[in-house]
Structure formats: structure tokens, C-alpha cells
Amino acid sequence: MSRWSGRRRWLLVCVASFGVGPAFRAIEGIRQPDTTTVQGASPAVVPVWEGERLPSVAFVVTCKRSHQLADDPILFPGKSGASHLHSFYGNITTQADSDLESMLTGATSCDESLDSAAYWVPSPAPETMRAYYDAGSADPSTVVAYWPGMKAIAGDPQVSEPGVKIAAFRCGEVGDGPDATRWFASPPSRCSSGQPIVRFTFGQCESDDDQRLAECAPGDAPRYVRLRLLMEFKGFAHSLGPHADFWNTWDQDQLEKLVAVCVRGERKNNLQIKQCRLPGTGPAIG
After folding, report:
1. pLDDT class for 286, splitting at 50, 70, 90?
2. Alpha carbons within 13 A on the beta-carbon side of 45
3. What's the CA gap between 193 and 172, in Å, rounded?
4. Stretch 166-188: mean pLDDT, rounded?
5. Which of 141-145, 209-213, 236-240 has the lowest mean pLDDT?
6. Beta strands 118-122 and 243-247: pairing type?
7. In this structure, is the dihedral angle defined by the CA atoms of residues 168, 278, 42 and 147, taken in order, positive or negative?
8. Residue 267 pLDDT
9. What is the DSSP letter of 71?
10. 22 contacts 96 by C-beta, under 8 angstroms
11. 86-90 and 118-122: which strand pairing?
12. Confidence band (pLDDT; 50, 70, 90) for 234?
């Protein structure tokens, strides 16, 4: 499945780039991805960490809606106008004709300047959305970042209620976080307090057929960090099934660092990274 090159070294990025140590210990015999061939999944290998590991938390990115197009770069690549209308967040250049090269140079509408990934949902959709990255139910020390160029879909446009594992609804505030209680498989008809909120949850394993991210099969251990999108869905009740799309065009070094430091807990007590936080929206923690 993987299309990585045969080179036998992998240089591990040290979190000393954040101003701390100790460094990772290099592991011999691990392949380094060929950056000229980015399709396919990376080996699920976690670097050996010799420092202090703190409890796993999330890192959170908030993005504004950048544009709307009847495009879907995953299902209809290169076919402008072939899809229903989508609202796009993150990479402001995302369109049907986008490729990895163009996406990597695109600006972002997210508060993390190195998150040039693309997120999109059917329109109408709210002005902002929040992306939470955490370990999910996996052992945090084992999860890895997504491979460059990875694409994923949460939900199905043809399924009106895909279940709370994929699309979940509640009344509340986005600031309540994705782990708030009482999520439901269908949108509430009305909210006596707060706003209607939708939470999309992406899979943590590879699909067998198209090398995209997918739900893990029974018995499979999650390999990748979990992504959940949270947004108010004012006007979101339409004829389309609730679903969301993601294209990993993050600055890969930054994504790797955030997964290592925030999710795997490879950090010191005095380390401050603004994206590391509890699954709610509280202050950054060290």
C-alpha cells in the first residue's frame, strides 16, 4: 500500500526546536518518505522518547470559513462545479483543480499559520469551525501524524443519520468542547438554550482500497491521531446527509511536532505551546 522510497534512514525531529530537550533517539532501519511521491500511508512507527512524558491532551485549531464552491477535490478532483455547494475552511486556495503542490503554498484562514490543510462541509455552514486533534481511544504513545497529502471523509452524503461515532448533534456552545455529554444521531428540532452544535469525527486507520483515512475495522488498533470538527450548524439541516472532508496539507514538520508534544505527551512541565490544551477550549497547558 505504501509508496515510500527504500531509503533506510529517518531523521527524527527533536522537540528541542521548541526550546526543550532531551531529543528523540534515532531509530535505525526506518524508511523516510520520498517527498516527491506523497500518495500512500507512512509506516505507523512512533519514535522512541527518552524524556518525560506528560498526560496526553489535544491540540486545537480554529478556522474561519474562507469561501464556498460547488467543488469537491476528493470525490470530483479536477471537475469544477460537479458537486453540491461546500463551505471551505483552512486553505484559502482549495478548489476542484487543487493539487498537493498548490495546497502547500496556499495561505490559511486558521489561527495556526502552519495549518494549511483544507476542511470542508456542505453549505450552508457557520463562519467558524474548531478542529480538535487527540488520541481518541488509542494509547496516546502509539498514535502518529497523518501522512502528507492524506484525504479523509467523515460520514456519507447519502446517509441522513450516520450515527454519533461520525456525526453527532447537541444543543450547547462550541466552547463546551467535543467531549460534552449527550450527543445525538440527529439534529435537535429546537434548542431551549445555546445553539445547535455538530461534531464530525474522522477515522484513525487506513482504508484498504483507496489509501485514505477510514474507520478502524473491529480489532484494529487506531494508528493515526483523531480529528474532530466542531461547529454551530445554523441552517445546516438540509437534504444532504451530514458529512465533512479533510485534506492534510499541513506544514508536515509542525503537524509531527504537535502530535508528539501534545498528543503523545513528549514535553516538559515548563513547556508552553499555545495549541496544547484540554479537549475543551481552556488555556494552554505545559
Report:
1. very low
2. 17
3. 7
4. 87
5. 236-240
6. antiparallel
7. positive
8. 73
9. -
10. no
11. antiparallel
12. low
Residue type, 34: D
Report yes or no: 279 and 106 within 8 Å, Cβ to Cβ. Answer: no
Q: Which three cell numbers stand for residue 46?
A: 512512533
Average pLDDT in the 80-97 region?
94
DSSP 164-217: TTTEEEEEE-GGG-TT-S--BSS--S--SSSEEEEEEE--SEE-TTT--EEPPP
E-strand stretches of the chain: 58-69, 86-90, 118-122, 128-134, 151-155, 167-172, 195-201, 205-206, 213-214, 226-232, 243-247, 276-277
What is the pLDDT at residue 11? 30
Can you tell me which residue has the cell 488520541?
Answer: 135
- Find all residues with CB under 8 Å of 93, minimum gap 6, and list them: 102, 103, 105, 106, 107
- d(CA 154, CA 120) in angstroms, rounded, equals 11
Closest CA to 86 of 248, 210, 211, 236: 236
Cβ atoms of 231 and 250 closer than 8 Å: no
Model confidence band, residue 219 (pLDDT cutoffs 50, 70, 90): confident
196, 208 contact by CB (below 8 A)? no
> What rounded mean pLDDT belongs to the chain?
78
Give the burial class of 91: count Cβ atoms within 10 A of its Cβ; 0-12 exposed, 13-18 middle, 19 or more buried.
Answer: buried
